[in-house]
Amino acid sequence: MSDIKARQDAIVDELSAISDWRERYRRIIRIGRDMPEMPEADRDDDHLVKGCQSRVWLHADLEGDRVRFRGFSDTSIVNGLVAMLIRVFDDSTPADILAADGSFLDRIGIHENLSQNRANGLAAMIKQIKAYGIGYQHLLSMQGR
Predict the structure, then answer these.
(1) Second label for 21, Cα 20 to 30 Å away, from 29, 100, 108, 140?
(2) If we measure between CA atoms, which residue out of 92, 80, 86 comes closest to residue 126?
(3) Residue 132 class from Cβ within 10 Å (0-12 exposed, 13-18 middle, 19+ buried)?
(4) Is the pLDDT of residue 83 over 70?
(5) Quick check: 84 and 10 in contact, CB under 8 A?
(6) Are 97 and 88 in contact (CB under 8 A)?
């Protein structure tokens, strides 16, 4: 099982244990609050995720053959969603990022409990994470790794 799949399963287990959606939202917000702060310098237009109603920044660096993510949103629930995605995809290879799917979000019922705008924003965040995976996969292949 890939690290990403194991992290997805852990989030599903954590949130599925909470039956009340208000409590799940509170837990998602806490996940965001527990995420390390994204430096202000990375909160610029180059890292702003297009397609989100809230302001969301995602930044990725390649360390060896692993992609390291940082992120932040100016709204607490969306910041929690950012933190969940970072928890899943951080410190993974580009190939693993590209092979992963977002079905864990369906398994916790997130799409049915988000507004359409937030669901679109979540899709935009995943698209941006995948774009980083593509870019870094290409860079690694150019370097012969």
Answers:
(1) 100
(2) 86
(3) buried
(4) yes
(5) no
(6) no
Cβ pair 57, 43 in contact under 8 A: yes
Q: What fold does the segment set 3-142 form as a domain?
A: Sufe protein. Chain: A (3.90.1010)
Name the helix (H) or strand (E) containing 94. Answer: helix 94-99
- 52 is a catalytic site residue: yes
Please say if the pLDDT value at position 135 is more than 90: yes
Q: Exactly one of 28, 29, 52, 100 is catalytic; which is it?
A: 52
Dihedral of CA 90/96/99/104: which sign?
A: negative
Helix H or strand E encompassing 63:
strand 56-63
Confidence of residue 3 (pLDDT cuts 50, 70, 90): very high
Tokens 């390291």 -> residue: 68
**What letter represents residue 2's amino acid?**
S
pLDDT at residue number 145? 77
Q: Which residues contact 66 (CB under 8 A, 6 or more apart)?
A: 91, 92, 93
